[in-house]
């Protein structure tokens, strides 16, 4: 979002590659309160020069992050005026990075370990004095934007859940301003596995007064934060396992002056007078309240809500998107809802179910499949208006199956519908748009990369070097710089000179491989990692080079100061087969044998008494005559030979019972 900030020589020094004409902030997930994922204020990078993007840095973060970063420019810090990039790690730690060079400015927040994690992006309020982050303690924390000092008065930190052991902040924090008040929204769901006494709910925090309202999507007639295993009907709900967990969280539409939340899982019975809103889109006032008596302002629920719940194909894997419509459209306020089932549903936001009241079922304007569908789709659409062309609204739908471009058009009765225009078979996380270029992350040769595409046909305009691991990640592009937090890697790409880079070349010996297997371009002083994978029956022998170290199968270089090579060697796995035998005979060989993984070995068994009997077992083997051969050996094992009692002897060629022996 564009903000007016004082510009000085200090700012120019800290942001020498930014375009002052396009100075903007990316304050929350999806850029704006409606989470369009479109930055119309970008003016530096466009289709004519996007191919010139180069990497300024790639740093290794201390902890894994599955979020999109947010950015505020020209912030006063103890070290001077800087553009700050904020990332929340899964363990709850919030870090402010210098957007220009990736150095850490400050960190804040307590940390936890799995399974108590968060995948929610932080948010910066419009006055740019504070940044908010969801903590794994179930609270929303407020930090001074320049130094990370936490605000501990005025109701802060604010409670988002009283059940942090079973309720997770998986979505981004979001904000909207309405009627002169700014509200911060936090939503909650359960952890992976759908276990425990959790209910989805929205917490709307008035940033001016510090007061908050709670809307529960199960037992919506209870307007408090519920307690774990409390009393149903008063402090807890008799239903459970419904959540709000899409990437953006709550969506605000200034045209309707409502916020929208979408739920996944859980019972739906609002159509019969109940207060459970599983797999539904709910419209609320900006302060988080409904029309009273546990009812939202309006709602939409698909007719197959029972199937969505029973098969765990949550409607709420994405948030509602707001679609600008042509002036002639019979529907003036239009929403788009997708979900795990890879369906696209157009909804009239003035009457969401067509019944004139909340609780209705069905009523969507259009219901179609995503052109490139993916089972359990979990990505958010990007919305773009082609102001430089025909003025049409476009939807870019990314998922593991590919990327689709759909155009909003009117039928002969001026009713809006989505028309599939192009598809690209390339897996993608949630896309964004900036200055009429589509960006997304996805797999590429050697790992994962960022891609820039033409919005009209999906043609690739640029591909980045590798960026790190992907789950929920989406990039941001603001003030001429493209950022992405991918796993433990934070990268920036821009049009300027990236400074010194070096090439790290992987070299794998026989019987194994390194991934990525192509030379990697690494910024001076940065590190990079390779995963060593041996072939079947082999193990990692050694990985060396570039001053690195091996942890498990991952080799991480030291800071790179020159071109270098990482070399991996692999050795055959071996096991020990030990023969054990009783008196009465011999076994050859009689000592432990070293055997390659998957190979066999044999032992020759000879009784002391010719014709004497014996038994042999172990190592999955079999006996043929006097030779015992193991099965394919996959672990240390023992071959045991037992000789029969010495009851017969031979004398002068005749076999005599032992009682006739002479001494």
Structural description of this entry:
The protein is built from 2 helices and 51 strands. The chain folds into 3 domains: 9-494, Quinoprotein alcohol dehydrogenase-like superfamily (Methanol Dehydrogenase, Chain A), CATH 2.140.10; 501-572; 575-660. A hairpin with a 2-residue loop joins β12 and β13. The model is unreliable at 2-22 and 646-663 (pLDDT under 50). With 663 residues, the chain is mainly beta. The N and C termini lie far apart (109 Å). It is globular, with a radius of gyration of 32 Å. The strands form 13 sheets. The chain has a 5-stranded mixed sheet, with no helix packed on it. Strands 11, 12, 13, 14 and 15 form a 5-stranded antiparallel sheet that branches.
Sheet with the most strands, sense and barrel status = 5 strands, mixed
Number of strands: 51
- Overall domain count: 3
Strand line-up of the largest beta sheet:
1-28-29-30-31
* Separate helix tally: 2
Domain Pyrrolo-quinoline quinone repeat: 72-154
Keywords: Signal
Signal peptide: 1-23
Pfam families: Flg_new_2 (PF18998), PQQ_2 (PF13360)
């Amino acid at each position: 979002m564009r903000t007016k900030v004082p510009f000085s020589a200090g700012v120019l020094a800290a942001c020498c590659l930014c375009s002052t004409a396009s100075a903007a902030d990316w304050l929350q997930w999806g850029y704006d309160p409606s989470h369009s994922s479109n930055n119309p204020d970008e003016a530096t990078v466009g289709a004519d020069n996007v191919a010139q993007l180069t990497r300024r840095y790639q740093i290794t973060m201390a902890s894994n992050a599955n979020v999109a970063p947010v950015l505020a420019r020209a912030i006063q810090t103890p070290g001077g005026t800087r553009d700050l990039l904020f990332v929340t790690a899964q363990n709850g730690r919030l870090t402010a990075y210098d957007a220009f060079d990736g150095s850490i400015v400050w960190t804040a927040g307590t940390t936890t370990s799995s399974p108590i994690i968060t995948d929610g992006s932080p948010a910066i309020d419009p006055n740019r004095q504070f940044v908010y982050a969801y903590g794994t303690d179930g609270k929303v924390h407020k930090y001074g934007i320049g130094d990370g000092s936490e605000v501990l008065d005025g109701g802060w930190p604010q409670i988002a859940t009283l059940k942090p052991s079973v309720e997770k902040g998986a979505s981004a924090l979001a904000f909207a301003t309405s009627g002169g008040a700014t509200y911060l929204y936090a939503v909650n769901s359960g952890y992976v596995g759908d276990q425990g006494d959790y209910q989805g709910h929205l917490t709307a925090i008035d940033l001016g007064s510090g007061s908050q309202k709670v809307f529960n999507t199960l037992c919506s007639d209870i307007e408090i934060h519920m307690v774990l295993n409390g009393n149903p009907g008063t402090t807890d709900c008799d239903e459970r396992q419904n959540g709000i967990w899409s990437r953006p969280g709550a969506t605000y539409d200034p045209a309707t002056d409502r916020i929208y939340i979408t739920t996944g899982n859980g019972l739906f019975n609002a159509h019969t007078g109940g207060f459970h809103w599983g797999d539904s889109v709910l419209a609320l006032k900006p302060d988080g309240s409904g029309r009273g008596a546990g009812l939202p302002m309006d709602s939409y629920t698909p007719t197959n809500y029972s199937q969505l719940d029973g098969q765990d194909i949550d409607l709420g894997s994405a948030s509602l998107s707001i679609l600008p419509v042509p002036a002639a459209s019979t529907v003036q306020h239009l929403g788009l809802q997708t979900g795990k089932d890879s369906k696209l549903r157009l909804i009239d936001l003035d009457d969401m179910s067509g019944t004139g009241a909340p609780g209705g079922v069905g009523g969507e304007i259009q219901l179609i499949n995503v052109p490139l569908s993916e089972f359990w789709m979990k990505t958010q659409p990007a919305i773009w208006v082609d102001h430089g062309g025909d003025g049409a609204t476009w939807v870019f739908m990314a998922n593991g199956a590919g990327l689709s471009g759909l155009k909003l058009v009117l039928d002969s009765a001026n009713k809006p519908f989505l028309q599939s225009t192009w598809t690209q078979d390339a897996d993608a996380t949630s896309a964004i748009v900036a200055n009429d270029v589509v960006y997304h992350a996805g797999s590429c040769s050697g790992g994962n990369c960022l891609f820039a595409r033409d919005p009209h046909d999906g043609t690739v305009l640029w591909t980045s070097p590798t960026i790190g691991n992907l789950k929920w990640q989406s990039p941001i592009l603001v003030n001429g710089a493209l950022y992405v937090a991918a796993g433990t890697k934070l990268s920036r790409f821009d049009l300027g000179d990236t400074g010194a880079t070096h090439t790290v070349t992987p070299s794998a010996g026989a019987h194994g491989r390194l991934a990525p297997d192509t030379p990697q371009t690494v910024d001076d002083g940065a590190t990079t990692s390779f995963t060593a994978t041996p072939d079947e029956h082999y193990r990692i022998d050694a990985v060396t080079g570039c001053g690195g170290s091996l942890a498990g199968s991952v080799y991480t270089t030291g800071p790179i100061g020159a071109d270098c090579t990482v070399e991996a060697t692999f050795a055959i796995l071996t096991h020990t087969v030990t023969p054990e035998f009783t008196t009465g005979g011999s076994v050859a060989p009689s000592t432990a044998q070293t055997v390659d993984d998957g190979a066999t070995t044999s032992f020759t068994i000879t009784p002391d008494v010719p014709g004497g009997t014996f038994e042999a077992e172990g190592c999955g083997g079999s006996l043929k005559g006097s030779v015992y051969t193991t099965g394919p050996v996959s672990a240390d094992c023992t071959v045991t030979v037992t000789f029969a009692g010495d009851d017969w002897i031979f004398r002068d060629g005749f076999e005599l019972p032992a009682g006739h022996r002479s001494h």
